[in-house]
Amino acid sequence: MGTQRSARVLILCDFDGTVCSVDMGNEILNRFTGKGWEEIDRAYCADEIGSRVAYSQVTPLFKGTRSQMLKFVSDKEKLDPYFAGFYVYCREKGVDLKIVSDGLDFYIDAILKKYGLGEIEYFSNAVLFSDRDKMSIEFPQMNKKCEKCGTCKSNILTKYQTSYDMIVYIGDGHSDFCPAQKADLVFAKGILYEKCMEVGKSTIQYGNFQDVHQYFENHFFHGNVG
User: Fold this and answer.
1) Is 185 in contact with 204 (CB distance < 8 Å)?
2) DSSP state, 16?
3) CA 5 to CA 28: how far, in whole Å?
4) Does residue 197 lie within any of the structural domains?
5) Closest to 174 measured CA to CA, from 56, 57, 45, 58
6) pLDDT value at residue 226
7) 89 is in which domain, residue-wise?
């Protein structure tokens, strides 16, 4: 597949394990829920339940305030060291970048703003904290026909297909597999890479955003993609 520099290109990035090297969603669940989360996580990883059901089951287990969780996030987070530079590069080249996450908005927002990246549009599940330190999770990006994931990344990708000539997907996990099948170019690691290899989906393996940046510099703006 060939692409000219004038093509309209959108990059969709997963957050946990991708933009953020640490899976903050899992870190928060491990810290603020308890042993009940382990069985729910096992069922999710075995594809017995989707993330929407997993979140619904785990929400009552949360013990902690919003401020405690944000303090934990600030101490634990680890933004991919090359992501900010890659984002600036994309902006300079006229390539749009958005984040699609099956994680939670409050820590995504906090981490992006911490690094001066608050302008990046992101889609995720939404957390509401009550005055009594109880939390609930809403799913504004759920696919009502499927209801497996809290955030249907495939729906988001499909929505943008008519506005762009090419959609690039970058991810690492279970929730990235469906959208990766629809993307024109995929960068994958972890479970996503394994699952793409199983079905024969053409995929570029990467370690961090330096690898992605280098690929764009070498291939995207100096010839064809793919």
Assistant:
1) yes
2) B
3) 41
4) yes
5) 45
6) 41
7) 9-220
CB 157 within 8 A of CB 167: yes
Q: Which residues contact 132 (CB under 8 A, 6 or more apart)?
A: none
Enumerate residue ranges in the chain where pLDDT < 70.
1-5, 132-133, 222-226
The answer to whether the beta carbons of residues 76 and 22 sit under 8 Å apart is yes
Best CA proximity match to 152, nearest among 58, 56, 50 = 50
pLDDT per residue over 69-90, tens digit each? 999 999 999 999 999 999 999 9
- Of 140, 203, 199, 168, the residue nearest 14 (C-alpha): 168
Longest dimension (CA), the chain: 57
Determine how many CB atoms are found less than 10 A away from the CB of residue 208. 15
Instruction: Answer whether residue 4 is part of any domain.
Output: no
In whole angstroms, give the CA distance from residue 121 to residue 10: 12
* 10 DSSP β-pair partners: 96, 167
Instruction: Report the domain count for the chain.
Output: 1
- pLDDT score at 46: 85
Instruction: Indicate the pTM of the whole model.
Output: 0.91
Report the CATH number that the domain containing residue 170 is assigned in CATH.
3.40.50.1000
